[in-house]
Amino acid sequence: MNPHSTILLAGGGTGGHLFPGIAAADELRRRDPSTRIVFVGSTRSIESTIIAEHGLEHRMLPVEPLPTLKRNPLRFVIKNWQAWRGAIRLLKELRPAAVVGLGGYASAPIVWVASRCRVPVILIEQNVIPGRTTRLLSRFADHVCVAFSESISRLPQARHVIVTGNPVRASIAKLYNRSQFELNEEGRSTFKQRQLLILGGSQGAESLNHAVMSAIKKLADQLKTWKIVHQTGARDAERARSQYQEQGLSFVVEPFFHDIGELYSRADLVVSRSGATTLAELACAQTPMILLPYPHAADDHQKANAEAFVDRNAAVLVEHSTLPERTADKLRDALHLLIDDTTRRKRMGQAAKELAHPDAAQMFANVIETAICPIS
User: Fold this and answer.
1) Which domains does the chain have, with CATH numbers?
2) Is the pTM of this model over 0.85?
């Protein structure tokens, strides 16, 4: 790259879109500290919080998601028109060497404007089923990077698709290189007490929390030798603490965990949604997992992500039922089988490792650099 290049990373709305961009930003700045990285996204507070925690620059556009069109069409038109105009001003001001679309509606204005201005565009799609924004913008991109090979056939209009994996932060990627000594038949042997890690997402997941707490209530005796580590989101934290205390379980409950890599390294089993970034991180950590896909995800993409891991024996899938107690019963059955089956958990962890891409950030950075300075 040229000295003092500026690269725009466009997208956001959730940690799942942001964290791959942060991993790529860290790698690009490691290669060339003079590179200026600017995140461009929506006005959602979670974006500002996460990006600020990583010391990165953030510009916001008043972009509105498609569901707003039905609820408030006037707001949708006005805000997105302002976002398109803001994207044009940003490109004129920053003159980026490349624009990287991280997915989600927040990436659309700046990516489309960049393609019209002949700025190199690179997209990354984290999910098995590409999102609507990726599908629409793929025809304008120089390169589309995907996390799953199954995604390639779903992007017929893309010019160049490459499987890079989903970039994860360096602190997570290094978990891939842990030795079998650290992951022996006793689970995470460095730690005396086995741990069940429950991830409700960066903003919590009420239906997942309900299923988990109902299932654990019925398995309290079996879990007496385990420690429950539960990320609940703000709404369910106190309820979870109260329940686990009443059942005499060892537990840590927080609305959100910042040092997630440390928790991955200690976890003997994880219950989680199946967002693509979480799965990429769990694969690097070689962690056996029970996955409850978010049932209202667009195109049911979380179920497709989970099935990619289930098909390779790295995870157990528990689908949400219309009756919450039925979901809890299915989760209880899955937990009951795995809690005392160290051999199966170990096999699942090894299968998860085979799905990991610890070098995804480097591969993604290579693609960005190639788009900026194409090989002749």
Assistant:
1) 6-168+359-372 (3.40.50.2000), 172-354 (3.40.50.2000)
2) yes
